[in-house]
Design brief:
This protein has helices at residues 2-27, 34-39, 48-54, 57-89, 95-102, 104-107, 110-120, 127-134, 153-176, 180-188, 193-221, 225-230, 242-252, 256-287. It has 288 residues and is mainly alpha-helical. Helix 1 crosses helix 14 (256-287), helix 3 packs across helix 14 and helix 4 packs antiparallel against helix 11 (193-221). The chain starts with a helix and ends with a helix.
């Protein structure tokens, strides 16, 4: 009887998690295209797919774009989220409704948020250009999503807006776990504001902050639908991140072997991030 209850979950994980991962690993070592899928002939090529991907200038560009996108988003999401968490830790009128409103970006489907920001950043009808022109801050509209030099700014702003509530919620949970008696004792000793933050808040929040930063990094580097809706990876690959690069190779150029190799390289990078996180977490626990 116990196995009967567990079976649906095991079958679900097997079909939608284990099998796709196993297939991706196998495809990364084979020459897979549409013809091969139809005929079932997918010859083994060893590390050839990985060599092709690593030597591809587009892949190298995707790495740089992913790093810029991830680092910028994570830094601003964490910083703003931490400041908001510190703010809402204090009691003041309308704190509850304001905090609920700030959760809206996290609750909205990513497709909806991406569509809204794409509309706002349109060159001719976008509200951003309209506002800047109305206040005479610009002499002509900015091509936010069509200029390769600034096209990544739009998705970065949108992703920061989406991720702030996530960071704020997790950090607030950590702040609420700090005993109030520590702040009372510090106040008696004459510590105020920045001194309390440096001596109490930050040391007590280092483990939680590390977890939030790692989760934010993993979520951000895997962002696909937001960028796909807003720019499609363009213009001129200016917003093509690693997930979009893998998608384009697999489902646009139908080179599934190269796409699988790119996916596995991304997985290995995230695995390294997870290992570093566990090592730092263990160090924090030892120091605690």
């Amino acid at each position: 009887m116990p196995y009967t209850f567990v079976a649906p979950a095991v079958i679900f994980l097997g079909i939608f998690l284990i099998y796709p991962v196993f297939t991706t690993i196998v495809y990364s070592f084979e020459q897979v295209n549409v013809g091969g899928l139809l005929t079932g002939v997918t010859p083994f090529v060893g590390l050839q797919n990985y060599q092709h991907v690593l030597s591809d200038p587009q892949f190298q560009s995707a790495i740089l774009v992913s790093l810029i996108f991830t680092v910028t988003c994570v830094v601003f999401q964490f910083t703003i989220g931490f400041l908001l968490a510190l703010l809402f830790k204090e009691r003041f009128p309308l704190a509850g409704p304001m905090r609920a409103l700030l959760l809206i970006p996290w609750l909205l489907p990513l497709i909806v948020s991406a569509t809204i920001f794409k509309w706002m950043l349109q060159t001719d009808n976008g509200i951003i250009n309209y506002a800047l022109l109305s206040f005479h801050l610009l002499s002509h509209p900015i091509t936010w999503l069509d200029d390769p030099k600034i096209a990544l700014v739009g998705p970065i702003i949108a992703n920061i807006w989406i991720g702030i509530p996530f960071n704020m919620s997790l950090l607030m949970a950590g702040l609420q776990g700090i005993p109030g008696s520590l702040y009372e004792a510090a106040t008696v000793e004459g510590a105020r504001g920045w001194q309390q933050f440096r001596r109490i808040t930050w040391p007590m929040m280092r483990a939680q902050s590390l977890a939030v930063l790692v989760l934010g990094t993993i979520l951000t580097i895997n962002v696909f639908d937001l960028i796909y809706v807003m720019t499609g990876g363009g213009p001129v690959d200016a917003t093509t991140t690693l997930p979009l690069y893998a998608y384009q190779n697999s489902f646009v150029f139908y080179q599934l072997g190269n796409g699988a190799a790119a996916t596995m390289l991304l997985f290995l990078f995230l695995l390294v991030v997870a290992v570093v996180y566990l090592a730092l977490l263990s160090k924090e626990e030892v120091n605690a």
